[in-house]
Design goal:
The chain is mainly alpha-helical. It is about 60% helix and about 5% strand. The chain is built from 6 helices and 2 strands; from the N terminus they run H-H-H-H-E-E-H-H. A two-stranded antiparallel sheet has the order 1-2.
Length: about 150
């Protein structure tokens, strides 16, 4: 029998479908914007985290919900791009990562791109609707105990 099966829900009836639909577009748009400035979204997240102060890789991994290996790869890329510095601590084992002058100058530029991207996709919404959507997403994160940050 051809036709629609009423017992099987369609894609468009699921909130997750619409969240992915919008999220994919927002993320792709932002990725293109920061890529034009020479970084990836994941690198931007790490740079922004370091803007608040130097940190050890393990601390970054914990705060961003990433593995130490992922932090190591990201930090190596940022070191190679000349955006961060690595300071060896006195005991010779541990080290801290921090923004250098070039990386610190890039942060406001990337932040404006993030603001612009948000405005492009959500600027037409009334402030109370934006706040309601954000609160709903934050509540889901809290209720589900989600830890990994959306960085890529």
């Amino acid at each position: 029998m051809k036709g629609k099966n009423k017992e099987i829900s369609g894609l468009e009836v699921h909130l997750g479908y619409w969240l992915r639909y919008v999220s994919n577009q927002v993320s792709h748009s932002f990725a293109q914007k920061v890529q034009a400035k020479g970084v990836t979204v994941a690198e931007w997240v790490l740079l922004r985290q370091l803007y608040d102060g130097e940190s050890r890789p393990g601390q970054l991994a914990q705060s961003l919900g990433l593995t130490r290996g992922a932090i190591s790869k990201l930090s190596e890329r940022l070191l190679n791009k000349g955006l961060i510095d690595r300071n060896q601590e006195e005991d010779g084992r541990a080290h801290c990562l921090k923004l250098n002058a070039r990386g610190r100058q890039l942060i406001p530029v990337l932040s404006r791109l993030a603001d612009q991207n948000d405005e492009e996709y959500f600027g037409h919404l009334e402030p109370e609707i934006r706040k309601m959507i954000q609160c709903a997403m934050e509540e889901i994160v809290q209720m589900k105990g989600l830890k990994s940050k959306p960085i890529g």
